[in-house]
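ping. complex inputs:
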Amino acid sequence: MNTFGRLFRVHIFGESHGKAVGVTIDGCPAGIPLSPTDFEADLARRKSGAKGTTPRKESDKPELMTGIFEGKTTGAPLTILFRNENVQSKDYSNLKNSPRPGHADFVAQQKFGGFADYRGGGHFSGRLTLPLTAAGVVAKKVCEKLKIQARLVETGGDSDIESAIDRAIEQNQSIGGIVECRIANLPVGLGEPFFDSVESLLSHVVFAIPAIKGIEFGAGFQAARMTGAEHNDNIVSTEGKTETNHAGGINGGITNGNELVFRVAVKPTSSVSTAQNTMNLQKGEVEALKIEGRHDRCIALRVPPVLEAATAIVLADLMLLEQKARRVIT
Amino acid sequence: MNTFGRLFRVHIFGESHGKAVGVTIDGCPAGIPLSPTDFEADLARRKSGAKGTTPRKESDKPELMTGIFEGKTTGAPLTILFRNENVQSKDYSNLKNSPRPGHADFVAQQKFGGFADYRGGGHFSGRLTLPLTAAGVVAKKVCEKLKIQARLVETGGDSDIESAIDRAIEQNQSIGGIVECRIANLPVGLGEPFFDSVESLLSHVVFAIPAIKGIEFGAGFQAARMTGAEHNDNIVSTEGKTETNHAGGINGGITNGNELVFRVAVKPTSSVSTAQNTMNLQKGEVEALKIEGRHDRCIALRVPPVLEAATAIVLADLMLLEQKARRVIT
Amino acid sequence: MNTFGRLFRVHIFGESHGKAVGVTIDGCPAGIPLSPTDFEADLARRKSGAKGTTPRKESDKPELMTGIFEGKTTGAPLTILFRNENVQSKDYSNLKNSPRPGHADFVAQQKFGGFADYRGGGHFSGRLTLPLTAAGVVAKKVCEKLKIQARLVETGGDSDIESAIDRAIEQNQSIGGIVECRIANLPVGLGEPFFDSVESLLSHVVFAIPAIKGIEFGAGFQAARMTGAEHNDNIVSTEGKTETNHAGGINGGITNGNELVFRVAVKPTSSVSTAQNTMNLQKGEVEALKIEGRHDRCIALRVPPVLEAATAIVLADLMLLEQKARRVIT
Amino acid sequence: MNTFGRLFRVHIFGESHGKAVGVTIDGCPAGIPLSPTDFEADLARRKSGAKGTTPRKESDKPELMTGIFEGKTTGAPLTILFRNENVQSKDYSNLKNSPRPGHADFVAQQKFGGFADYRGGGHFSGRLTLPLTAAGVVAKKVCEKLKIQARLVETGGDSDIESAIDRAIEQNQSIGGIVECRIANLPVGLGEPFFDSVESLLSHVVFAIPAIKGIEFGAGFQAARMTGAEHNDNIVSTEGKTETNHAGGINGGITNGNELVFRVAVKPTSSVSTAQNTMNLQKGEVEALKIEGRHDRCIALRVPPVLEAATAIVLADLMLLEQKARRVIT
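pong. complex structure:
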């Protein structure tokens, strides 16, 4: 389903080329000041337009439809709507028969019996990360003491990101990347052992972001190559501070008071300029498919604010669960 | 919480050194033949005893307490209990003041206000993977057409696993590893876009397994270093079969009919023989802690059946959701 | 929270005097034809305007924002929006200090720390039954084989409803009523023992309708005065048909194949013309409060379509759970 | 499913004539003193043995299996088991073909494809109210400031309960009754508008108790016969105290600080001594069925502690949600 969270619950909806995309947040505490300008910074970071991103231009203006009164949250469901304005009238119906490699076209049609909206990916579109990012803006306000920062640390295998993008443009290729997220000021004790471990909850939401194919916490996959004596973090304060942070701030599924650190792998944009083979479902034969238009060279460039939002959504929920569940922020 | 699933719901409970560990499965279809012997194979694979594993010996006999009648599931909640028999009477109370590095001792006491059962890790213990594995046995029966197989593909950075274990024993060290899971015979269409993507659900349960620090699907972290043209899987049949499988069998969060492939990183066992520094919470000073007893050299050896169980729990739920939700398997 | 359902999930949002009220339905099967005209009949039945109802006039036009493509549901979340148009600009701020007896003004302000939207009841308003009724229209399509009919069987203690309304208008009073709902063509086997009994689920949603203060199934409160021999329904067919239907179509929480019958008690409209005492929270003294404007004489008149909607929401979910959970209606 | 609650989650399992019935409570705060003797009072009240109740004798000794350490809850799942000891070896298999009127025999076999445990009602048995009552004992500790009291106010249509029972025994009949529950010391603000209204949540759990056929809050069905001016409760203190309490302590789904009052209708025991007609499913013909053994004359006698438990489970959850969600009671 399109819902996540226990106390701070996020519901997303919408399609790339329909009327709108949006989000309803249920369980948001009352009394939080909120205005459209609060969304500007993160939405701008997510927006296309920079070198390496798609030129689809949307104003991305959030309409605060419900749950707001006199500039503050009321405790009632908060619905934020984004109209789709820059939707091209071109014909997308060929996607129904010629599913794009790397995209969800094939599975969407199969799963929904041919009734899925295929225009621009429909409900599967990366455009749904817009309401997700908006929900993150609200979530960040709920857990405002935390410092959540994601950044692209590598793209196309290169940590010099500027040059990697230039190279991709020059070579007419799309590339992937690795985004790292760090969260400071966390209290000890968020999360649960087993099914509601912090890793479980974060990875659950993170994999809701299109194009993410891997996640690792702390030393992550490197941990598999360390010895226990190397990997263990010695505890050096009564507050639980550790000398090293191979655990990435989590033990037994629960925050240990150190910085929470994780990295995600972002696959290269699936829309590429070169022709690819796909099965024409109507004709029953393989054909070459060329995807028109200009696309993101490196979707990973736009992932950091979305990843922060996903993280904030989880942590806002955990903060409400653990510290206080009051509906009013005091 | 200690619950996972929508239609096939798994609830785990218990402690390492309490009376028992167990699981209740709610939503299991009626009419499935089930007897204690069905659990033997997977429980034996999970069990300690092999080279590199702890010598704690437990009979691990499942008691089918409820939900079974005349050798078949009834559709009512199925509770499976495992008595803890081989619990040593030794004093664990020092763990309360001297939390072991890499373990959950510190966070458990902090989170639960000093009331957590600290003996052998209490509810945080890896022993809880026993009822998880048992739930997996039932889940495998629910989705019996699927072929779910996990295996250790690397340990201590070495794909020759036998020699890596020997080396770890010789050097008196604990080591980590990488476990790969492959699922064949999946239908197209399991999972949802966004929050209930197959990656979201699988990673959610997988990170409930203690010691897992990373997960990647298909090409995973390597995908971040590929171009789109390299990474995209060309579709070559009307059933969605692809030439390559960099996506790991999932597009847009939904199974695409190809083999589902993912890998997890297992950290080295945290209980090591050498002395480590930790904070003595009572004295307020750092002290050297030496953990007595014999422990797993490589917990990753015991992960494959647990990982299969986690996978089966997710897929049983998705199969019931997508294909039929009837209470009776016909 | 503002959510109900397991597979067919309904999320309501909005305020009486804000921009809009609306609903998102997640889990609606794909391929269901749906257009704004489908909503007309039930929305008209719910609408004010008849004798005994409030003269607030709203066009109540549903905007199908998402989840629809080419006139059919897509399987993606379906969001339906209703703009609030006929919102009077009058000042409601006195409600914050002088809570109306019988209304939620007092609890809303207390619960949400003074931040609740108090205009016309805000999120607590009966206007939220508009999106609930819209969700019911969709739900009825999902379980279209069922025949769900609710009607007002008594108002002001009188089964001659026309004359009771006339009397209430004449005497300048508001009155309550009893609404009965009958559902035919139900299969045997919907619902679960205990927490997901059909009575549990129906009453859960029914008490979400403002003004409902009681519910009884079958013989209901009369059953408490019968003997077992009188109350038991003899089974007279292999399909489970019974001679009598004191159980109201449910045994052990599960539909038994007979007509499902329940009745609800609707309290009299809380907005009355005569002055009432309330506590002025600012002054700390009891004062007489006179509520201006014209209001429903008998809100029970408008309950039947809302009750049908609540019922359809539960039954659509149970039908999907029990018969098939496929996303596509075939 | 067999689960209820958001933070304080109750999972029940077991069968009347299987090995055991039990409950797991997840989300119980840590640090609550708990021993088997704490259960004695409520379990004794629920127990059979009094005049008018069945003579099945069970020791009903709770085994605290998990979640307890050194006499206190740990914050981990709390599993409480009750062995079935006094299970008679008689043959129940005729119930499969000759479903008892008023019981769940027919629906259980239909729903679960003939695999349900039919002995003594199996999982549908009133014996499941034993773990429910045990969960209530724990819940009462979580919300110990509340005073929750249920009592039988009428049976067989008579408020002189003693004489009604005597009459039922003399006339060899089973009778129903009405149980009233009152909760004092509630804070203002528990519950939510709409789907999580206090009425919704209470009725949800209350209808999980077998034999309940109706529920009404405050004036309840009488409210349908009152005028608004009569029914409205004037507010007479800044804490929300009202002159009358027709609302039963709830406005807009939320506790208003007054006593919460509700009543439930309990049907007469379905097991009666006289022969009844039912359909023999094997022969396909109606036959007279005589139910052997001795049964409760008036199951309503045993309902009060179960109703208190249901109420406490809801209120413990709401108290944790609203006031603090900390895992530790301080």
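Chain C touches chain D through 103 residues (CB under 8 Å).
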